[in-house]
Amino acid sequence: MEKRVTFRSAWLPYALLAPQLAITVVFFFWPAFQAVWFSFQLQDAFGLSTQFVWFDNFIALFGERNYWASFRTTAIFSFSVAALSISIALLLAVMADRVVRGALVYKTILIWPYAVAAAVAAVLWSFMFAPSIGIITYVLKGLGVDWNWVLKGDQAMLLVVIASAWKQIPHNFLFFLAGLQSIPKSLIEAAAIDGAGPARRFWSIVVPLLSPVTFFLLVVDIVYAFFETFGVIDATTQGGPAQATQILVYKVYYDGMKAADIGGSSAQSVILMIIVIGLTAIQFRYIERKVHY
Amino acid sequence: MAGVAIRDVHKSFGPVKVIQGISMDIADGEFVVMVGPSGCGKSTLLRMVAGLESITSGEIAIGERVVNELEPKDRDIAMVFQNYALYPHMSVYQNMAYGLRIQGRPKAEIEKRVQRAAEILELDKLLKRRPRELSGGQRQRVAMGRAIVREPKVFLFDEPLSNLDAKLRVQMRSELQALHQRLKTTTLYVTHDQVEAMTLAHRMMVMNAGRAEQIGAPLEVYQKPATTFVAAFIGSPPMNLIPGRIAQGGKVLAHDGEISVRLPEPRPALEGRDVLLGVRPEHFETCAQSEALLSPDIDFLELLGSDSLVYGHLGADKQGMRVAARLHISILAKEGRLPLRFSAEHVHLFDPESTRRIED
After folding, report:
1. What is the ipTM of this complex?
2. What is the CATH code for A71-287?
3. Model confidence, pTM
4. Which of A184, A200, A208 sits opposite B102 (nearest CB)?
């Protein structure tokens, strides 16, 4: 017996798919295609003439020191965001998993930051860390730390990493919590009887069993840090100071919108597209196979 | 090796009293089965011995040591779980070696002990596999292997066979028995299956609603059930419990003034007393009408080949006094009255108020 639904009509399946396909084509394929098209073109600054230049934009891009610097910035930024949000989320999930009373309240509160818009989150954190009026700046000054992210690149990086990671923690927390709850309790009990203390149980049983979830989150978080952190950066550092926080996606925006280099900016977004396709492929390929059990 | 002493143990989850005062002394090397319907507290009691549940009041000792406040790892026990609880990310070898590695044993010793356990359980060819690559019976063996490599003082089994199919269960049951004869480790075993309890136990504890209804050797429990609960729980189909009053100088059991069963041996001492008369279905035999002690109306039959189960009732009310009999004849009338008798040694009398056995 064929269990799937089969259509006898030739056109009905296409008609049913049409709305979804239309949206995908109009909002995804068309812009993507345009980006690819623009990336092969060179425009003058006033947009009066356009020239087809093959791979010149890409060649120019890879010869540019700033672009490689932005790559490095992005790598540092996204791995920091992923590592920070994954480790804190795991810690919170492990603790939430042990809470017996008021568990629901605790979990609900932990999920709130996810609902905060990126720009709002960024403004929130930049207020707290503001060089002149920020409360954390004040505390840091008391501890003898000279905090001024407007001037210091590494501090600016730290700020955007914290703000971006904070927003991603609830997402990771939810996945870890679900992952923890799917580990049978008897496994932990068996390990306890085998003589493993809480720390040992965590590292030798819980962490390996969560590894598929962790891997999934690592990929998702990197994609998040690559693309969705635009709002955080734009609302705080705007890529500065001295491009210390200019991640790739912000550079695309800056070069295309502010510097009016449509061709170069499109070339960058094509490269970003290839990166995200690669990340997605990795995720699909390994997420089902790397599962431990 | 050590015995286990359970002394007036209670357990409450909030207001719910799960264990209500259980005591038992388990000798070194004894195989004790705790049996009862689900929710009777048998698993909770086992988990209290393991240290996975706290003890509300009372005392549990393993060997000479009171273990109430000890962590599971310090109690020198090993436990086999119903769902096996194998570590899915470890090979069979790693599963069995895990406890020894935590103890910090030398590698050579770990290998020797795992190898020995694997040979006992015929797992030597599977050591490199992951649990998901094993069948149910093999997983069960790995779980036992993990318990025996640690050479604990006490084995705890929590319904270890209930996830297996019927055929495998019978096989694993005899393997468990053989294993115990070989290792002679004190064993506490929880099950809801009376056949497992009867076949495996040196002594069994029949539990109901957080209490021990009876503690004794399997045959003793079968032959002299202490309460109506035990009488009905052990044996299949369950023991017939016919209500009535002893009358006519202890010769008959009467119900609403009508004689329902005649007794094989008069019990004049009980004259006028309300009782429950217990007779096991397998202790009935057919006879001539003149010798019959009771003659139930047949309701329906189950032919099992080797023997037949007859279900009937006494008196006019069909829903009233049900009687089941296991008879060694295959051809029977499908309706009418069935004359039955039973011998005096198979009579059990219980007090309907306290449900306790009335001693001879």
Report:
1. 0.81
2. 1.10.3720.10
3. 0.79
4. A200
